[in-house]
Amino acid sequence: xxxxxxxxxxxxxxxxxxxxxxxxxxxxxxxxxxxxxxELGDRGDSEANALILALxxxxxxxxxxxxxxxxDDPARCGxxxxxxxDPLDGTREFCDRREDWAVHIGLxxxxxxxxxAVALPASGQVFASDxxxxxxxxxxxxxxxxxxxSRTPPLALAVAEALGGxxxxxxxxxxxxxxVVDGQAEIYLHAGGQYEWDNCAPVAVxxxxxxxxxxxxxxxxxxxxxxxxxxxxxxxxxxxxxxVLAAVSQVEQ
Length: 253
Description:
alpha/beta; Fructose-1,6-Bisphosphatase, Chain A, domain 1; D-Maltodextrin-Binding Protein, domain 2; 2 domains; five-stranded mixed sheet; globular; Inositol_monophosphatase-like; CysQ/Inositol_MonoPase; 3'(2'),5'-bisphosphate nucleotidase activity; 3'(2'),5'-bisphosphate nucleotidase CysQ
């Protein structure tokens, strides 16, 4: 049976609903115990992707979709509206049945990450760009910087040293970005390779929450390019943006 998505939903409501349905599918697959390891990851990627594409095409038939798990349609580059999705961000963490994996449903309009939802299925959380604004917690004595638990970029180590920061290892890009949105960290700095689907939805959510979002040189993040490589990213509390960008500039000189 073809899944249904209500076309009357706003873009943000649709992003949230699609993220919730994909999260439910992945959580059930993970809990089912019928497969493990690579088979579990492959099924998660494939089945979540199929569901997301069906839901988006049902609700927004005129929009394009760029997904990590689907063939790219170059015609999207001429479109104003493109959904940019990662059906399973953090496949390794998913296969290990950890909590730090995510579902990304983002919408870029005219190259800007306008709307999005990020689900953290293992913990039952969904963050969306239409969430009510929440005052950020007080700044800690030392900024917490979320980094990859398997391959911390040397740049992040250097910036942490410059700022007197504390490194917090974590899995998927979505989980790291939402840690900043949720006040569990202050800075997410990434260098070394990402694609648009890794950060479009997280950036939309983070920007709506009032956080600074940019490339690590301070340039704007631009989406729906012919080459979806988007290799670096900074999401942080506004209070730290200038200091982080200055530290990056010093390191890269």
